[in-house]
Structure formats: structure tokens, C-alpha cells
């Protein structure tokens, strides 16, 4: 077999076999859960920041109520960042499972701690036991979705092989 070099429209092609593969990125139902939980946290944090304002000198001074839960600017900022991380993780095929597992454990444990001892977090975050249960439930949702959601790969993967032989002129 000899190697053939040909010129097509001023482009030099130096190959005998051209392989083209069309594949779709893997996806998981966990991406939808990550997107929904992330959107809820992003909206919750954004509304809290809009109502309390952002004063970086004193993030726990102003308080506002969102969805029946009292918020400080610090809690709104934390929820906004967590929500954006979850929304960003939902964009990648395999990423949400690891991110959801980590953040689900953190949210579940933090939620249980806040539910047991809300007074320790009331000054800085405006947290009550309702916050604790809310965060614990979101943590359980994230963990459950990360554990049971499969990663789905495209079953219709196709490879097209095109063989070209160029003969001398």
C-alpha cells in the first residue's frame, strides 16, 4: 500500500482512510435534578440578596424573608453560589453525580446541625430549624438522585469509513 498525497482546493490531504465518528455526550437524569435544585437555590439566594442588599462590611446585618424563611445577605450569597455550582454541574454529562454527592452530603449534614441547634446560626445566617429541614431535604434529594440515576450513553454510535485512492495523472 502506498501513501498518496493529493491537493483539493489548495488543501493538502495526506491519508488513505478518513474516519468520522458521530457520538453524543452521555447524559443522566441526575442532570435534571441538579438543574432544578440549582435553579431553586439560585433564585432563593438571588431574591434574598435583592431584599437584604449586599454590604460586604456586615453581611449579617440586614435580614429579609424569602419563601417564609428569614435570610441574611451571607445566607443568600451561600445559596446563590451553591445553586450556580449545581446548575453548572448539570451542563456536563458525568459531572453532576460527583458534585451532587459531595454537595448533598454537605447540605444534609449542615441541615441536620442547623435543625438541631438553630440558635448557633441565627445571628450570621438568620437560620431557623425550618432552614435546617429545608437544606436536609435538598441534601437527601441530591444524594438519592446521584445514587440511583444511571448515566445513559448513546446506543446509536456510528462510524463512517471513507476510503479514497488517488491515482497518478
Features:
169 residues, alpha+beta, 15% strand
Could you walk me through the main structural features you see in this protein, from its secondary elements to its overall organization?
The strands form three sheets. The chain has a two-stranded antiparallel sheet. The two termini are 18 Å apart. It is α+β, with helices and mostly antiparallel strands and 169 residues long. The chain has one domain (29-148). It has helices spanning 29-52, 73-90, 95-116, 119-125, 129-148, and strands at residues 6-8, 11-13, 17-22, 63-66, 69-72, 158-163. The mean pLDDT is 78. It is built from five helices and six strands, in the order E-E-E-H-E-E-H-H-H-H-E. Helix content is 54%, strand content 15%. Helix 1 (29-52) packs antiparallel against helix 2 and helix 2 (73-90) runs antiparallel to helix 3 (95-116).
